[in-house]
Amino acid sequence: MQAFHAATWPERAELVETFEDDRLRELGRRIVFLERPDALRPELRTGLETWLHNRLHGREGVEAGRTIADAVCDLEGVTADENNTTALKEIRRWLEATAGRRGEHH
């Protein structure tokens, strides 16, 4: 792990493939993907793009935890007042931007 954190992103992308623990290898790939997706081999990047899209938006018949749509729905139920109006607007803006960036993948 020390070598991973000391390496450049392209070096990290290569290094994670040497991890024997499947969970650690997947975590390392996700870290590289979220920080520097261009450092990954195209087939890994494509798989992780699909993973992230499904994680954020869900997929039919699979419960994957909370999605962007779930968060937007929850946000609709929050009553705005003088203490939270700005925060609610920022959260909504972030959710919409995230949905727009990642929502067009598939």
Write the layout of secondary structure elements.
Blueprint lengths: L1 H5 L2 H8 L5 H14 L6 H16 L10 H9 L8 H19 L3
Rough shape? elongated
Low-confidence stretches: none
Query: What proportion of the residues form beta strands (DSSP E)?
Result: under 5%
Number of domains: 1
- Mean pLDDT level: 87
DSSP E strands, number: 0
* Main sheet: strands, sense, barrel: none
> Could you give the distance between the termini?
34 Å
**Could you give the order of the helices and strands?**
HHHHHH
Fraction in helix: 55-70%
Structural class: mainly alpha
Roughly how many Å is the radius of gyration?
17 Å
Helical element count?
6
What does this structure look like?
- With 106 residues, the protein is an all-alpha fold.
- It is 67% helix and 0% strand.
- It is built from six helices and no strands.
- The protein has helices at 2-6, 9-16, 22-35, 42-57, 68-76, 85-103.
- α2 (9-16) runs antiparallel to α3 and α5 (68-76) packs antiparallel against α6.
- The longest helix is centred in the last third of the chain and has 19 residues, at 85-103.
- The chain is elongated and about 50 Å long.
- The relative contact order is 0.10.
Features:
6 helices
Summary?
Helices cover 67% and strands 0% of the residues.
